[in-house]
Amino acid sequence: MPEPEKPKKKFEFKLPQFSWKDFRLKTQVGKSIFRHDYKDDDRDRALTVLTNVFFHLHPVKVRKSGARFGFTWCAGGLSFFVFLTLVVSGILLMFYYRPTVEYAYNDIIAMREHVPFGIMRELHRWGAHAMIITVWLHMFRVFMTGSYKPPREFNWVIGVILLVLTMLLSFTGYLLPWDQLAMWAITVGSNMARATPFLGHEGPGAALLSFGDIQLIHSGSDVRFALLGGRFVGEGALLRFYILHCVAIPTVVVILMAVHFWRIRKDGGISAPL
Amino acid sequence: MIEAFKGAVDAFSSPVTIFTAAALFLTLFVSFPKFFVSKPATLGMVILSGIFFFIGLTDKHFKSIVTKPDNVPIVAMLFIFGYFTWFSLKKAVTNDALVAAGKPTVEKAEAEQKVMVFPYLIYIEFVVALAYSIGLVLWSIFLKAPLEQPANPTISPNPSKAPWYFLGLQEMLVYFDPWIAGVLLPTFIIVGLCCIPYIDRDTKMSGFYSYKGRRRAIIPFLFGFWLLWILLIVVGTFLRGPNWNFFGPFEVWDVHKVVPLVNVNLSEFIYIKWLGTGLPKLWLIRELPGIAIIGAYFLIPPAILAVTALKSVYEKLGAVRYSILMILALTMLALPIKMYLRWAFNLKYLVAIPEFFFNI
Fold first, then answer.
1. What is the C-alpha radius of gyration for chain A, rounded to an integer number of angstroms?
2. Residue A178: its chain B contacts at CB < 8 A?
3. What is the pTM of this model?
4. Of B105, B120, B136, B229, which to mutate for an interface test with A (greatest number of A Cβ within 10 Å)?
5. What is the pLDDT of residues A95-126, one digit of tens each?
6. I need a surface site. Which of A105, A189, A223, B79 has the fewest CB within 10 A?
7. With DSSP H G I counted as helix, E B as strand and the rest as coil, what are the percentages for chain A, rounded to 5?
8. How far apart are CA A106 and CA A90, in angstroms?
Protein backbone atom coordinates (compact mmCIF):
# COMPACT_ATOMS: atom_id res chain seq x y z
CA MET A 1 0.00 0.00 0.00
CA PRO A 2 1.44 3.20 -0.98
CA GLU A 3 1.98 5.43 1.84
CA PRO A 4 -0.41 8.29 1.74
CA GLU A 5 1.35 11.21 0.46
CA LYS A 6 2.08 13.65 3.13
CA PRO A 7 0.46 16.91 2.35
CA LYS A 8 3.20 19.13 1.15
CA LYS A 9 3.90 21.80 3.62
CA LYS A 10 3.24 25.00 1.95
CA PHE A 11 5.94 27.50 2.48
CA GLU A 12 4.50 30.51 4.07
CA PHE A 13 6.40 33.60 4.85
CA LYS A 14 5.27 34.92 8.11
CA LEU A 15 6.58 38.00 9.76
CA PRO A 16 7.26 37.40 13.38
CA GLN A 17 4.32 38.90 15.13
CA PHE A 18 5.41 41.52 17.54
CA SER A 19 3.11 42.85 20.12
CA TRP A 20 4.42 45.76 22.11
CA LYS A 21 2.09 44.83 24.91
CA ASP A 22 3.28 41.21 24.99
CA PHE A 23 6.83 42.41 24.95
CA ARG A 24 6.23 44.66 27.91
CA LEU A 25 4.24 42.21 29.98
CA LYS A 26 5.28 38.70 28.93
CA THR A 27 8.94 38.62 28.01
CA GLN A 28 11.62 38.64 30.63
CA VAL A 29 13.36 41.60 29.03
CA GLY A 30 10.19 43.62 28.83
CA LYS A 31 9.10 42.82 32.35
CA SER A 32 12.49 43.72 33.71
CA ILE A 33 12.22 47.17 32.16
CA PHE A 34 8.58 48.10 32.49
CA ARG A 35 7.31 45.97 35.38
CA HIS A 36 3.66 46.90 35.03
CA ASP A 37 0.87 47.66 32.61
CA TYR A 38 -0.36 51.09 31.59
CA LYS A 39 -3.88 50.24 32.42
CA ASP A 40 -6.39 52.86 33.15
CA ASP A 41 -6.47 52.19 36.86
CA ASP A 42 -4.92 54.06 39.71
CA ARG A 43 -2.58 51.25 40.69
CA ASP A 44 -0.77 51.21 37.38
CA ARG A 45 -0.78 54.98 37.17
CA ALA A 46 0.79 55.17 40.58
CA LEU A 47 3.36 52.56 39.58
CA THR A 48 4.17 54.55 36.45
CA VAL A 49 5.34 57.38 38.61
CA LEU A 50 6.87 55.30 41.38
CA THR A 51 8.92 52.93 39.27
CA ASN A 52 10.34 55.50 36.88
CA VAL A 53 13.36 57.37 38.11
CA PHE A 54 12.50 60.47 36.08
CA PHE A 55 8.82 60.56 36.93
CA HIS A 56 9.39 59.87 40.59
CA LEU A 57 10.57 63.43 41.07
CA HIS A 58 6.81 63.88 41.30
CA PRO A 59 4.59 62.51 43.98
CA VAL A 60 1.96 59.98 42.88
CA LYS A 61 -0.85 62.43 43.44
CA VAL A 62 -0.97 66.19 43.49
CA ARG A 63 -3.62 68.68 44.44
CA LYS A 64 -5.78 69.48 41.51
CA SER A 65 -5.04 73.19 41.94
CA GLY A 66 -1.34 72.51 41.58
CA ALA A 67 -1.67 70.47 38.40
CA ARG A 68 -3.05 73.43 36.48
CA PHE A 69 -1.02 75.19 33.83
CA GLY A 70 -2.79 78.38 34.81
CA PHE A 71 -1.40 78.09 38.31
CA THR A 72 2.25 77.15 37.77
CA TRP A 73 2.69 78.25 34.14
CA CYS A 74 4.91 75.17 34.14
CA ALA A 75 7.76 77.65 34.44
CA GLY A 76 9.86 75.69 36.93
CA GLY A 77 9.46 72.40 35.09
CA LEU A 78 10.20 74.14 31.82
CA SER A 79 13.36 75.68 33.28
CA PHE A 80 14.54 72.19 34.17
CA PHE A 81 13.71 70.92 30.70
CA VAL A 82 15.52 73.84 29.09
CA PHE A 83 18.51 73.03 31.29
CA LEU A 84 18.48 69.45 30.02
CA THR A 85 18.35 70.58 26.38
CA LEU A 86 21.27 72.89 27.13
CA VAL A 87 23.25 70.01 28.59
CA VAL A 88 22.64 67.92 25.48
CA SER A 89 23.43 70.66 22.97
CA GLY A 90 26.35 71.78 25.11
CA ILE A 91 27.90 68.32 25.10
CA LEU A 92 27.59 68.21 21.31
CA LEU A 93 29.26 71.60 21.05
CA MET A 94 32.10 70.41 23.25
CA PHE A 95 33.03 67.86 20.60
CA TYR A 96 33.86 70.67 18.20
CA TYR A 97 35.25 73.35 20.42
CA ARG A 98 38.71 73.94 21.86
CA PRO A 99 38.97 76.67 24.49
CA THR A 100 42.16 78.36 23.36
CA VAL A 101 42.69 81.76 21.85
CA GLU A 102 44.23 80.04 18.85
CA TYR A 103 41.31 77.73 18.04
CA ALA A 104 38.15 78.97 19.74
CA TYR A 105 36.93 81.38 17.08
CA ASN A 106 37.94 79.12 14.21
CA ASP A 107 36.13 76.19 15.76
CA ILE A 108 32.94 78.23 15.88
CA ILE A 109 33.44 79.21 12.24
CA ALA A 110 34.13 75.59 11.36
CA MET A 111 30.98 74.52 13.11
CA ARG A 112 29.02 76.98 11.04
CA GLU A 113 30.73 76.10 7.76
CA HIS A 114 31.29 72.37 7.99
CA VAL A 115 28.44 70.93 10.00
CA PRO A 116 25.50 70.34 7.67
CA PHE A 117 22.27 71.85 8.86
CA GLY A 118 24.03 72.87 12.00
CA ILE A 119 21.74 74.56 14.45
CA MET A 120 23.37 73.18 17.57
CA ARG A 121 24.98 76.49 18.46
CA GLU A 122 21.71 78.29 17.89
CA LEU A 123 19.84 75.77 20.05
CA HIS A 124 22.39 76.36 22.77
CA ARG A 125 22.51 80.13 22.58
CA TRP A 126 18.78 80.74 22.27
CA GLY A 127 18.17 78.04 24.85
CA ALA A 128 20.41 79.94 27.23
CA HIS A 129 18.39 83.11 26.71
CA ALA A 130 15.18 81.13 27.08
CA MET A 131 16.34 79.62 30.36
CA ILE A 132 16.98 83.04 31.84
CA ILE A 133 13.47 84.09 30.88
CA THR A 134 11.85 80.89 32.19
CA VAL A 135 13.75 81.11 35.47
CA TRP A 136 12.68 84.72 35.97
CA LEU A 137 9.16 83.73 35.04
CA HIS A 138 9.24 80.95 37.61
CA MET A 139 10.37 83.39 40.28
CA PHE A 140 7.65 85.80 39.22
CA ARG A 141 4.97 83.12 39.47
CA VAL A 142 6.18 81.90 42.86
CA PHE A 143 6.10 85.46 44.12
CA MET A 144 2.66 86.26 42.75
CA THR A 145 1.15 83.19 44.41
CA GLY A 146 2.94 83.89 47.69
CA SER A 147 4.46 80.44 47.50
CA TYR A 148 7.71 81.49 49.17
CA LYS A 149 6.05 81.77 52.54
CA PRO A 150 6.70 79.35 55.39
CA PRO A 151 7.47 76.48 55.21
CA ARG A 152 9.01 77.15 51.79
CA GLU A 153 11.36 80.00 52.75
CA PHE A 154 14.57 78.07 52.33
CA ASN A 155 13.57 76.65 48.98
CA TRP A 156 12.98 80.19 47.77
CA VAL A 157 16.52 81.04 48.87
CA ILE A 158 17.89 78.07 46.94
CA GLY A 159 15.84 79.24 43.99
CA VAL A 160 17.40 82.70 44.18
CA ILE A 161 20.86 81.11 44.17
CA LEU A 162 19.88 78.98 41.17
CA LEU A 163 18.66 82.11 39.41
CA VAL A 164 22.00 83.81 39.98
CA LEU A 165 23.84 80.70 38.81
CA THR A 166 21.70 80.58 35.68
CA MET A 167 22.83 84.07 34.79
CA LEU A 168 26.44 83.21 35.60
CA LEU A 169 26.19 80.13 33.38
CA SER A 170 24.99 82.29 30.55
CA PHE A 171 27.59 84.94 31.30
CA THR A 172 30.50 82.48 31.28
CA GLY A 173 29.22 80.92 28.07
CA TYR A 174 29.02 84.34 26.43
CA LEU A 175 32.82 84.52 26.22
CA LEU A 176 33.41 81.20 24.52
CA PRO A 177 32.80 82.17 20.84
CA TRP A 178 35.74 84.53 21.32
CA ASP A 179 34.47 87.21 18.99
CA GLN A 180 34.31 90.93 19.63
CA LEU A 181 30.84 90.68 21.10
CA ALA A 182 32.00 88.04 23.57
CA MET A 183 35.25 89.57 24.60
CA TRP A 184 33.96 93.09 25.20
CA ALA A 185 30.81 91.99 26.96
CA ILE A 186 32.95 90.04 29.41
CA THR A 187 35.40 92.92 29.69
CA VAL A 188 32.57 95.27 30.62
CA GLY A 189 31.08 92.73 33.01
CA SER A 190 34.29 91.77 34.73
CA ASN A 191 35.46 95.36 35.03
CA MET A 192 32.85 95.72 37.73
CA ALA A 193 34.86 93.27 39.83
CA ARG A 194 37.71 95.79 39.91
CA ALA A 195 35.56 97.94 42.14
CA THR A 196 34.65 95.27 44.70
CA PRO A 197 35.00 96.86 48.12
CA PHE A 198 38.26 95.70 49.76
CA LEU A 199 38.85 92.92 47.23
CA GLY A 200 39.09 94.84 43.96
CA HIS A 201 42.09 97.03 43.29
CA GLU A 202 39.90 100.02 42.47
CA GLY A 203 37.39 99.32 45.17
CA PRO A 204 36.86 101.40 48.26
CA GLY A 205 38.90 100.11 51.17
CA ALA A 206 41.34 98.10 49.07
CA ALA A 207 44.11 100.52 49.98
CA LEU A 208 43.58 99.67 53.64
CA LEU A 209 44.68 96.09 53.11
CA SER A 210 48.40 96.44 53.21
CA PHE A 211 51.47 95.58 55.25
CA GLY A 212 53.30 98.86 55.52
CA ASP A 213 54.06 99.81 51.96
CA ILE A 214 53.14 96.48 50.48
CA GLN A 215 49.68 96.52 48.89
CA LEU A 216 47.89 93.21 49.27
CA ILE A 217 45.26 94.09 46.69
CA HIS A 218 46.55 95.16 43.30
CA SER A 219 45.60 94.41 39.72
CA GLY A 220 47.49 91.12 39.91
CA SER A 221 45.82 89.83 43.07
CA ASP A 222 42.25 91.10 43.21
CA VAL A 223 38.99 89.27 42.54
CA ARG A 224 39.02 90.30 38.90
CA PHE A 225 42.38 88.61 38.49
CA ALA A 226 41.01 85.50 40.15
CA LEU A 227 38.04 85.50 37.78
CA LEU A 228 40.00 86.14 34.60
CA GLY A 229 43.24 84.39 35.41
CA GLY A 230 45.03 87.50 34.20
CA ARG A 231 44.88 91.26 34.07
CA PHE A 232 42.73 91.30 30.94
CA VAL A 233 40.34 89.00 29.10
CA GLY A 234 42.79 86.63 27.44
CA GLU A 235 43.89 83.02 27.31
CA GLY A 236 43.51 82.53 31.06
CA ALA A 237 40.02 83.96 31.10
CA LEU A 238 38.92 81.79 28.20
CA LEU A 239 40.04 78.61 29.93
CA ARG A 240 38.57 79.63 33.26
CA PHE A 241 35.24 80.58 31.77
CA TYR A 242 35.18 77.32 29.81
CA ILE A 243 35.75 75.24 32.92
CA LEU A 244 33.27 77.31 34.92
CA HIS A 245 30.73 77.06 32.14
CA CYS A 246 31.05 73.37 31.34
CA VAL A 247 31.99 71.82 34.64
CA ALA A 248 32.03 73.93 37.76
CA ILE A 249 28.77 75.86 37.66
CA PRO A 250 26.70 73.02 36.12
CA THR A 251 27.88 70.73 38.93
CA VAL A 252 26.73 73.20 41.56
CA VAL A 253 23.50 73.81 39.67
CA VAL A 254 22.71 70.10 39.47
CA ILE A 255 23.32 69.64 43.18
CA LEU A 256 21.19 72.64 44.08
CA MET A 257 18.46 71.53 41.70
CA ALA A 258 18.36 68.19 43.46
CA VAL A 259 17.94 70.01 46.76
CA HIS A 260 15.36 72.35 45.21
CA PHE A 261 13.21 69.52 43.87
CA TRP A 262 13.59 67.46 47.02
CA ARG A 263 12.52 70.38 49.14
CA ILE A 264 9.40 70.98 47.05
CA ARG A 265 8.26 67.50 48.08
CA LYS A 266 9.39 67.83 51.68
CA ASP A 267 7.81 71.26 52.10
CA GLY A 268 4.40 69.97 51.07
CA GLY A 269 4.41 69.94 47.29
CA ILE A 270 3.20 72.65 44.96
CA SER A 271 1.76 75.31 47.20
CA ALA A 272 -1.95 75.58 47.81
CA PRO A 273 -4.12 77.69 50.07
CA LEU A 274 -4.19 76.58 53.68
CA MET B 1 2.11 111.88 10.55
CA ILE B 2 4.22 108.86 11.39
CA GLU B 3 7.35 110.97 11.23
CA ALA B 4 5.74 113.48 13.58
CA PHE B 5 4.85 110.67 15.98
CA LYS B 6 8.39 109.33 15.89
CA GLY B 7 9.81 112.80 16.39
CA ALA B 8 7.52 113.37 19.34
CA VAL B 9 8.51 110.06 20.91
CA ASP B 10 12.19 110.86 20.49
CA ALA B 11 11.78 114.36 21.88
CA PHE B 12 9.88 113.03 24.88
CA SER B 13 12.35 110.22 25.59
CA SER B 14 14.97 110.56 28.25
CA PRO B 15 15.86 108.23 31.11
CA VAL B 16 13.86 110.37 33.51
CA THR B 17 10.73 110.77 31.39
CA ILE B 18 10.63 107.09 30.52
CA PHE B 19 11.08 106.09 34.13
CA THR B 20 8.45 108.58 35.26
CA ALA B 21 5.98 107.46 32.61
CA ALA B 22 6.52 103.82 33.54
CA ALA B 23 6.16 104.62 37.23
CA LEU B 24 2.90 106.47 36.55
CA PHE B 25 1.59 103.58 34.50
CA LEU B 26 2.52 101.11 37.24
CA THR B 27 0.82 103.32 39.82
CA LEU B 28 -2.35 103.35 37.74
CA PHE B 29 -2.06 99.63 37.15
CA VAL B 30 -1.79 98.72 40.82
CA SER B 31 -4.39 101.31 41.82
CA PHE B 32 -7.04 100.07 39.43
CA PRO B 33 -6.19 96.43 38.74
CA LYS B 34 -9.83 95.59 38.11
CA PHE B 35 -9.95 98.08 35.27
CA PHE B 36 -6.69 96.98 33.72
CA VAL B 37 -7.64 93.31 33.57
CA SER B 38 -11.05 94.10 32.10
CA LYS B 39 -11.63 93.33 28.44
CA PRO B 40 -11.64 96.88 27.00
CA ALA B 41 -8.49 97.91 28.87
CA THR B 42 -6.70 94.73 27.85
CA LEU B 43 -7.69 95.20 24.26
CA GLY B 44 -6.59 98.82 24.43
CA MET B 45 -3.17 97.91 25.82
CA VAL B 46 -2.66 95.20 23.22
CA ILE B 47 -3.69 97.54 20.39
CA LEU B 48 -1.57 100.44 21.63
CA SER B 49 1.54 98.34 22.11
CA GLY B 50 0.87 96.70 18.75
CA ILE B 51 0.55 100.06 17.01
CA PHE B 52 3.72 101.34 18.64
CA PHE B 53 5.58 98.22 17.65
CA PHE B 54 4.37 98.19 14.07
CA ILE B 55 5.06 101.87 13.56
CA GLY B 56 8.43 101.18 15.11
CA LEU B 57 9.18 98.39 12.69
CA THR B 58 8.70 100.76 9.76
CA ASP B 59 11.63 102.71 11.13
CA LYS B 60 14.92 101.38 9.87
CA HIS B 61 16.88 102.18 12.98
CA PHE B 62 14.28 100.83 15.44
CA LYS B 63 13.94 97.69 13.36
CA SER B 64 17.67 97.10 13.22
CA ILE B 65 17.90 97.24 17.01
CA VAL B 66 14.89 95.13 18.01
CA THR B 67 15.60 92.47 15.40
CA LYS B 68 19.26 92.14 16.30
CA PRO B 69 19.48 88.41 17.08
CA ASP B 70 20.65 88.90 20.64
CA ASN B 71 17.92 91.47 21.31
CA VAL B 72 15.05 89.32 20.09
CA PRO B 73 14.78 87.50 23.44
CA ILE B 74 14.39 90.85 25.20
CA VAL B 75 11.49 91.80 22.95
CA ALA B 76 9.96 88.37 23.52
CA MET B 77 10.53 88.74 27.24
CA LEU B 78 8.69 92.07 27.33
CA PHE B 79 5.61 90.48 25.82
CA ILE B 80 5.90 87.33 27.95
CA PHE B 81 6.23 89.23 31.19
CA GLY B 82 3.65 91.80 30.16
CA TYR B 83 1.22 88.98 29.53
CA PHE B 84 1.97 87.08 32.71
CA THR B 85 1.83 90.19 34.88
CA TRP B 86 -1.58 90.88 33.44
CA PHE B 87 -2.55 87.22 33.78
CA SER B 88 -1.54 86.93 37.44
CA LEU B 89 -3.34 90.17 38.27
CA LYS B 90 -6.42 88.89 36.48
CA LYS B 91 -6.40 85.70 38.52
CA ALA B 92 -5.78 87.74 41.65
CA VAL B 93 -8.72 90.03 40.92
CA THR B 94 -10.98 87.02 40.36
CA ASN B 95 -9.89 85.51 43.66
CA ASP B 96 -10.27 88.80 45.50
CA ALA B 97 -13.85 89.04 44.26
CA LEU B 98 -14.52 85.47 45.43
CA VAL B 99 -13.06 86.21 48.85
CA ALA B 100 -15.12 89.39 49.11
CA ALA B 101 -18.22 87.34 48.35
CA GLY B 102 -17.28 84.90 51.08
CA LYS B 103 -16.54 82.08 48.66
CA PRO B 104 -13.41 79.95 48.49
CA THR B 105 -10.77 81.00 45.96
CA VAL B 106 -10.35 79.16 42.67
CA GLU B 107 -7.33 77.32 44.04
CA LYS B 108 -8.97 76.57 47.39
CA ALA B 109 -11.93 74.98 45.66
CA GLU B 110 -9.60 72.49 44.01
CA ALA B 111 -6.99 72.09 46.70
CA GLU B 112 -8.87 69.32 48.48
CA GLN B 113 -9.12 67.15 45.39
CA LYS B 114 -6.12 65.18 44.29
CA VAL B 115 -5.32 63.97 40.81
CA MET B 116 -2.90 61.32 39.63
CA VAL B 117 0.36 62.86 38.47
CA PHE B 118 0.35 60.36 35.61
CA PRO B 119 -1.30 61.29 33.34
CA TYR B 120 -2.61 64.70 34.41
CA LEU B 121 0.54 66.57 35.37
CA ILE B 122 2.98 64.67 33.21
CA TYR B 123 0.92 65.37 30.12
CA ILE B 124 1.01 69.11 30.84
CA GLU B 125 4.77 68.94 31.23
CA PHE B 126 5.07 66.90 28.08
CA VAL B 127 3.04 69.31 26.01
CA VAL B 128 4.93 72.31 27.36
CA ALA B 129 8.28 70.64 26.69
CA LEU B 130 7.16 69.71 23.19
CA ALA B 131 5.91 73.22 22.43
CA TYR B 132 9.15 74.68 23.75
CA SER B 133 11.24 72.27 21.66
CA ILE B 134 9.37 73.12 18.50
CA GLY B 135 9.63 76.82 19.24
CA LEU B 136 13.33 76.59 19.95
CA VAL B 137 14.08 74.65 16.77
CA LEU B 138 12.12 77.15 14.67
CA TRP B 139 13.84 80.03 16.44
CA SER B 140 17.21 78.41 15.75
CA ILE B 141 16.46 77.78 12.10
CA PHE B 142 15.26 81.29 11.38
CA LEU B 143 17.70 83.23 13.49
CA LYS B 144 21.40 82.54 13.28
CA ALA B 145 23.49 82.98 16.41
CA PRO B 146 25.55 86.14 16.05
CA LEU B 147 29.26 85.92 15.41
CA GLU B 148 31.26 89.07 14.99
CA GLN B 149 34.90 89.65 14.12
CA PRO B 150 37.43 87.64 16.11
CA ALA B 151 38.20 89.04 19.53
CA ASN B 152 40.64 91.89 19.36
CA PRO B 153 41.78 93.53 22.56
CA THR B 154 42.96 96.62 20.71
CA ILE B 155 39.63 97.58 19.12
CA SER B 156 36.87 98.25 21.60
CA PRO B 157 33.41 98.55 20.08
CA ASN B 158 31.44 101.66 20.95
CA PRO B 159 29.22 101.06 22.85
CA SER B 160 30.55 97.95 24.60
CA LYS B 161 27.66 96.22 26.26
CA ALA B 162 27.44 93.43 28.79
CA PRO B 163 25.09 90.48 28.07
CA TRP B 164 21.51 91.77 28.00
CA TYR B 165 20.44 90.37 31.38
CA PHE B 166 23.17 92.45 33.05
CA LEU B 167 22.37 95.64 31.18
CA GLY B 168 20.25 96.91 34.05
CA LEU B 169 23.40 96.91 36.14
CA GLN B 170 25.37 98.60 33.38
CA GLU B 171 22.66 101.23 33.11
CA MET B 172 23.00 101.88 36.84
CA LEU B 173 26.62 102.83 36.18
CA VAL B 174 25.27 106.11 34.85
CA TYR B 175 24.16 107.02 38.34
CA PHE B 176 26.54 105.12 40.58
CA ASP B 177 30.16 104.09 40.62
CA PRO B 178 31.01 100.48 39.75
CA TRP B 179 31.43 99.47 43.36
CA ILE B 180 27.78 100.32 43.97
CA ALA B 181 26.19 99.54 40.60
CA GLY B 182 28.29 96.46 39.89
CA VAL B 183 28.91 94.99 43.31
CA LEU B 184 26.84 96.47 46.12
CA LEU B 185 23.47 96.72 44.41
CA PRO B 186 23.60 93.22 42.84
CA THR B 187 24.50 91.87 46.27
CA PHE B 188 21.55 93.77 47.72
CA ILE B 189 19.26 92.39 45.03
CA ILE B 190 20.31 88.82 45.78
CA VAL B 191 20.23 89.24 49.55
CA GLY B 192 17.00 91.21 49.29
CA LEU B 193 15.30 88.47 47.28
CA CYS B 194 16.49 85.90 49.82
CA CYS B 195 15.06 88.03 52.64
CA ILE B 196 11.55 88.20 51.17
CA PRO B 197 10.18 85.03 52.83
CA TYR B 198 11.66 86.00 56.18
CA ILE B 199 9.94 89.38 56.12
CA ASP B 200 6.62 88.50 54.49
CA ARG B 201 5.53 85.50 56.53
CA ASP B 202 1.77 85.59 56.49
CA THR B 203 0.98 82.01 55.48
CA LYS B 204 -2.70 82.76 55.08
CA MET B 205 -1.97 84.49 51.80
CA SER B 206 0.13 81.76 50.23
CA GLY B 207 -0.64 79.27 47.52
CA PHE B 208 -3.10 81.29 45.47
CA TYR B 209 -3.23 84.41 43.34
CA SER B 210 -4.38 87.39 45.33
CA TYR B 211 -3.82 91.09 45.25
CA LYS B 212 -5.90 92.95 47.83
CA GLY B 213 -4.40 91.22 50.83
CA ARG B 214 -0.86 91.34 49.50
CA ARG B 215 -0.60 94.85 48.09
CA ARG B 216 2.31 95.71 50.35
CA ALA B 217 4.30 92.81 48.95
CA ILE B 218 3.18 92.88 45.33
CA ILE B 219 3.58 96.62 44.67
CA PRO B 220 7.25 96.82 45.77
CA PHE B 221 7.96 93.61 43.90
CA LEU B 222 6.41 94.87 40.67
CA PHE B 223 8.22 98.16 41.15
CA GLY B 224 11.55 96.43 41.57
CA PHE B 225 10.99 93.89 38.86
CA TRP B 226 9.53 96.13 36.17
CA LEU B 227 11.06 99.52 36.83
CA LEU B 228 14.42 98.70 38.35
CA TRP B 229 15.20 95.59 36.37
CA ILE B 230 13.27 95.15 33.11
CA LEU B 231 12.99 98.86 32.30
CA LEU B 232 16.69 99.43 32.93
CA ILE B 233 17.51 96.49 30.67
CA VAL B 234 15.33 98.00 27.95
CA VAL B 235 16.95 101.41 28.33
CA GLY B 236 20.42 99.88 28.42
CA THR B 237 19.83 97.72 25.38
CA PHE B 238 17.66 99.75 23.07
CA LEU B 239 18.27 103.34 24.05
CA ARG B 240 21.95 103.57 24.93
CA GLY B 241 24.20 104.20 22.00
CA PRO B 242 27.84 105.18 21.46
CA ASN B 243 29.58 106.52 24.57
CA TRP B 244 26.56 105.25 26.50
CA ASN B 245 24.67 108.36 25.41
CA PHE B 246 20.91 108.24 25.50
CA PHE B 247 19.03 108.03 22.21
CA GLY B 248 15.30 107.97 21.56
CA PRO B 249 13.87 104.76 20.08
CA PHE B 250 13.84 106.21 16.57
CA GLU B 251 16.97 108.29 16.85
CA VAL B 252 19.99 107.20 14.84
CA TRP B 253 22.99 106.32 16.98
CA ASP B 254 25.30 109.19 16.18
CA VAL B 255 28.83 108.58 17.38
CA HIS B 256 29.44 112.31 17.46
CA LYS B 257 26.47 113.23 19.63
CA VAL B 258 27.76 115.79 22.08
CA VAL B 259 26.45 115.64 25.60
CA PRO B 260 27.76 118.27 28.00
CA LEU B 261 29.28 116.85 31.16
CA VAL B 262 28.11 119.38 33.67
CA ASN B 263 27.57 117.17 36.68
CA VAL B 264 28.69 118.61 39.98
CA ASN B 265 29.36 117.05 43.35
CA LEU B 266 27.38 118.02 46.41
CA SER B 267 30.50 119.32 48.13
CA GLU B 268 31.13 121.64 45.19
CA PHE B 269 27.58 122.90 45.40
CA ILE B 270 27.95 123.68 49.07
CA TYR B 271 31.47 125.01 49.41
CA ILE B 272 31.93 126.72 46.05
CA LYS B 273 28.50 127.76 44.89
CA TRP B 274 26.74 128.53 48.15
CA LEU B 275 29.44 129.33 50.70
CA GLY B 276 32.01 130.55 48.18
CA THR B 277 34.91 129.37 50.34
CA GLY B 278 36.44 126.77 48.07
CA LEU B 279 36.73 123.07 48.91
CA PRO B 280 38.21 122.25 52.33
CA LYS B 281 41.48 120.32 52.21
CA LEU B 282 40.44 117.57 54.56
CA TRP B 283 38.14 115.07 52.87
CA LEU B 284 36.14 114.41 56.02
CA ILE B 285 35.07 118.04 56.36
CA ARG B 286 34.58 118.36 52.62
CA GLU B 287 32.22 115.38 52.47
CA LEU B 288 30.54 115.82 55.83
CA PRO B 289 27.30 117.23 54.33
CA GLY B 290 26.94 114.30 51.93
CA ILE B 291 27.71 111.74 54.63
CA ALA B 292 25.18 113.44 56.89
CA ILE B 293 22.52 113.33 54.18
CA ILE B 294 23.07 109.65 53.51
CA GLY B 295 23.10 108.88 57.22
CA ALA B 296 19.89 110.80 57.65
CA TYR B 297 18.35 109.06 54.63
CA PHE B 298 18.87 105.65 56.17
CA LEU B 299 18.07 106.61 59.77
CA ILE B 300 15.36 109.26 59.92
CA PRO B 301 12.61 107.97 57.57
CA PRO B 302 12.62 104.46 59.12
CA ALA B 303 12.48 105.95 62.60
CA ILE B 304 9.61 108.26 61.74
CA LEU B 305 7.73 105.62 59.79
CA ALA B 306 8.05 103.14 62.63
CA VAL B 307 5.89 105.31 64.85
CA THR B 308 3.56 106.67 62.18
CA ALA B 309 2.53 105.11 58.88
CA LEU B 310 4.27 101.77 59.34
CA LYS B 311 3.59 101.34 63.03
CA SER B 312 1.67 98.13 62.50
CA VAL B 313 4.42 96.80 60.27
CA TYR B 314 7.04 97.61 62.87
CA GLU B 315 5.06 95.87 65.58
CA LYS B 316 4.48 92.84 63.42
CA LEU B 317 8.09 92.46 62.22
CA GLY B 318 10.14 93.49 65.23
CA ALA B 319 13.21 95.71 65.18
CA VAL B 320 15.60 93.46 63.26
CA ARG B 321 13.28 92.52 60.43
CA TYR B 322 11.97 96.06 60.22
CA SER B 323 15.49 97.49 59.93
CA ILE B 324 16.42 95.02 57.20
CA LEU B 325 13.22 95.80 55.33
CA MET B 326 13.91 99.52 55.57
CA ILE B 327 17.52 99.22 54.43
CA LEU B 328 16.42 97.16 51.44
CA ALA B 329 13.56 99.47 50.56
CA LEU B 330 15.63 102.62 50.87
CA THR B 331 18.44 101.12 48.81
CA MET B 332 15.90 100.21 46.17
CA LEU B 333 14.61 103.78 46.12
CA ALA B 334 18.12 105.20 45.98
CA LEU B 335 18.36 104.61 42.25
CA PRO B 336 15.32 106.64 41.20
CA ILE B 337 16.25 109.30 43.75
CA LYS B 338 19.71 109.63 42.30
CA MET B 339 18.20 109.66 38.83
CA TYR B 340 15.92 112.56 39.69
CA LEU B 341 18.72 114.42 41.50
CA ARG B 342 20.88 114.06 38.43
CA TRP B 343 18.10 115.37 36.25
CA ALA B 344 17.10 118.25 38.50
CA PHE B 345 20.47 119.46 39.81
CA ASN B 346 23.10 117.73 37.65
CA LEU B 347 24.28 116.17 40.86
CA LYS B 348 27.22 113.86 40.32
CA TYR B 349 28.06 112.46 43.74
CA LEU B 350 26.55 113.00 47.15
CA VAL B 351 29.76 111.82 48.72
CA ALA B 352 32.90 112.01 46.62
CA ILE B 353 36.08 110.69 48.18
CA PRO B 354 38.27 109.79 45.22
CA GLU B 355 41.06 109.28 47.73
CA PHE B 356 39.53 105.88 48.53
CA PHE B 357 37.50 105.32 45.36
CA PHE B 358 34.53 105.97 47.61
CA ASN B 359 31.86 107.87 45.69
CA ILE B 360 28.15 107.69 46.26
1. 28
2. 150-151
3. 0.93
4. B136
5. 999 999 999 999 999 988 888 778 899 999 99
6. B79
7. 60, 5, 35
8. 18
